């Protein structure tokens, strides 16, 4: 945004910290997914509190378009560590994946404070993550493809959270 044009990075992060929302985003990184950068960029755009990379520490930053400098990005070596972190903060894990038995995102009351969890492009949420999520939500689709890419799904889910909690008084 132009408002930050001549600011130092630390000042931008400090200002953003006063405005961040109470949702976090976690994404699994077992196979070096190229969509993680896009998820980080989208988390920055929607004001997520932080992004959590679960699995491999290295990820392709190209899609983040340098927004990882302004977004809090945490690493968890595995699901156990993410779950422990979330439990310490009493944050429910909400998985997003088009799986049998998942609940439509469009009808689910997203918690104000939560971690939206996304799987890898292709395999989706791992079985281990599915088992620890408080809910697994699907995004309604009407075409012939089985799923949308993880970066697009993350954008849809974050926007649903913003609509539910940022604009709730405006409705």
TrEMBL record:
Tell me the Gene3D superfamilies matching this sequence.
Answer: 3.40.1280.10
Extract the InterPro entries matched here.
Alpha/beta_knot_MTases, rRNA_Methyltransferase, SpoU_MeTrfase, tRNA_m1G_MTases_N
Task: List UniProt keywords, sorted A-Z.
Answer: Methyltransferase, Transferase
Provide the GO biological process annotations. Answer: methylation; RNA processing
Q: Which SUPFAM superfamilies match?
A: alpha/beta knot
| Keyword Cytoplasm attached | no
Q: Report the residue ranges that make up the tRNA/rRNA methyltransferase SpoU type domain in this protein.
A: 23-159
Q: Which GO terms describe its molecular function?
A: RNA binding; RNA methyltransferase activity
Q: What is this protein called?
A: RNA methyltransferase
């Amino acid at each position: 945004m132009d408002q930050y044009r001549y600011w130092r990075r630390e000042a931008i992060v400090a200002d953003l910290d006063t405005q961040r929302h109470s949702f976090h985003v976690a994404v699994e990184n077992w196979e070096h997914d190229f969509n993680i950068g896009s998820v980080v960029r989208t988390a920055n755009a929607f004001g997520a509190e932080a992004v959590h990379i679960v699995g491999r520490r290295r990820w392709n930053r190209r899609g983040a378009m340098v927004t990882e400098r302004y977004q809090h990005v945490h690493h968890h070596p595995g699901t156990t560590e993410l779950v422990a972190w979330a439990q310490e903060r009493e944050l429910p894990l909400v998985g997003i994946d088009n799986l049998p038995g998942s609940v439509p995102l469009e009808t689910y009351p997203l918690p104000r404070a939560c971690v939206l969890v996304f799987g890898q492009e292709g395999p989706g949420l791992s079985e281990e993550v599915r088992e620890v999520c408080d809910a697994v939500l699907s995004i309604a689709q009407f075409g012939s493809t089985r799923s949308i890419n993880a970066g697009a799904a993350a954008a849809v889910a974050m926007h649903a959270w913003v609509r539910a909690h940022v604009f709730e008084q405006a409705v």
